[in-house]
Amino acid sequence: MSFQFKPIGLIHSPFKEKFGIPRQPGLVPEIRATLELVPPYNNPEAVAELEGYSHIWIQFVFHQILNQEWQPRVRPPRLGGNQRVGVFASRSPFRPNPIGLSVVVLEQVVVDGDSVVLELSGVDLLDATPVLDIKPYIAYVDSVPDAECGFAPAAPEKLLRVQFSPQAEEQLQGRVDAVDLRALIIRLLELDPRPAYAAEDGRVYGFRLYDFDLRWQVDGDRVLVLELAG
Amino acid sequence: MSFQFKPIGLIHSPFKEKFGIPRQPGLVPEIRATLELVPPYNNPEAVAELEGYSHIWIQFVFHQILNQEWQPRVRPPRLGGNQRVGVFASRSPFRPNPIGLSVVVLEQVVVDGDSVVLELSGVDLLDATPVLDIKPYIAYVDSVPDAECGFAPAAPEKLLRVQFSPQAEEQLQGRVDAVDLRALIIRLLELDPRPAYAAEDGRVYGFRLYDFDLRWQVDGDRVLVLELAG
């Protein structure tokens, strides 16, 4: 028995690789992305009344790791990357069916002829992610504020202090999106995106964001943004 | 582009048909069901540490309506079944990809040799539902208590009063599960399972529950349980 599903939409997001994406949605409200419905689902009728909801569920495919074998145990980053827990006790993308689930903020529904686009924020989604379904977030059903949550009891509390090198500052100021981009970079890096098992002070890390490579290093509780490389 | 997924488990539930199932999970905590992992996913390692979570997400297939065409607009029961909203603004099972999403209470994980079974409560799932994924419910991410929720702002408030006919009472008392079953029947029927567009006082309704047909009728704000037919 198996089931076949077609994407109903595609995500357009600033994240061009997995590294650097916050580990959960909502951690960085500044992240903007869009969900574009693809034919034949780009029917404005299909999203009628959706703008009455402030939040929606996105069910999507972890498309970059589609052909990897699943393992019964995974190493969640919240446990320092050393302890292994059951794959079904984790939100790891490496699962038997690589289907992801994220609640995101619905900013706006934009319909323009054949184009039906949902503007989102607070996403943790890779660019080009195929979307299988959109559902309204219904608080009286989906919200269980006092659920017991094993090893993931709360949002990470310790934030790093983010500073920009003169070079990074200059590159930033040369962009039209400087103010928003500065805020976004701070929010992404203060969470310390390094995998816990490979976190080294002084080492230069980088990930692709929009059209540049963001290069940075950590020293104690401080992140220094080195450059926005072309 | 399409994606193929295999079920990792199957639901065993008292609901043998769609009619009678509460419209959302959590509305009837008394409903017990189990999720049985199927080979090769029946590996106790895959659910290690899961019992630290009080709630889990079930992503499943609406298997009874797999080959139905989707429509851009659906009629949610909460709107009286007359008004139509966009399919993506609803939790209707009739969707482009018939994937369901329910948060349920994880009562216990029972491992016995090759058998790996999750005991659940508060489910809204049909018997034999194929499950695609299990994820832990992480409150700091998944719980958005003040999300705005369009036309579905709160749990239904008006509950019907449930009474048992002498015949139904006698049939109930002949069962070993009489006490729990009585509570369950009350909770199911007080929600008024009738589709709003086909709700008729005096008409006899029935649905399959466990191994019997539950037959009942509504009169004003009162439900009379007629019989538990064989």
3D architecture notes:
The structure is a homodimer of 230-residue chains. The mean pLDDT of chain A is 92. In chain A, a hairpin with a 2-residue loop joins strand 12 and strand 13. By secondary structure, chain A is mainly beta. The relative contact order of chain A is 0.21. Chain A has 3 helices and 13 strands. Chain A has 2 domains: 134 residues, YaeB-like (Elongation Factor Tu (Ef-tu), domain 3), CATH 2.40.30; 69 residues, RelE-like (YaeB-like fold), CATH 3.30.2310. Strand 1 of chain A pairs antiparallel with strand 1 of chain B.
Summarize the structure.
Chain A is mostly beta strands.
Write the layout of secondary structure elements.
The structure is a homodimer of 230-residue chains.
Chain A (H helix, E strand, L loop, with lengths): L2 E3 L3 E4 L19 E6 L17 E7 L11 E2 L10 E2 L12 E14 L2 E7 L8 E7 L2 H4 L18 E4 L1 H8 L4 H13 L13 E6 L2 E8 L2 E8 L1
Mean pLDDT over the residues of chain A = 92
Percent of residues in helices of chain A: 10-25%
Amount of beta strand of chain A: 25-35%
List the quaternary state of the chains. Answer: homodimer
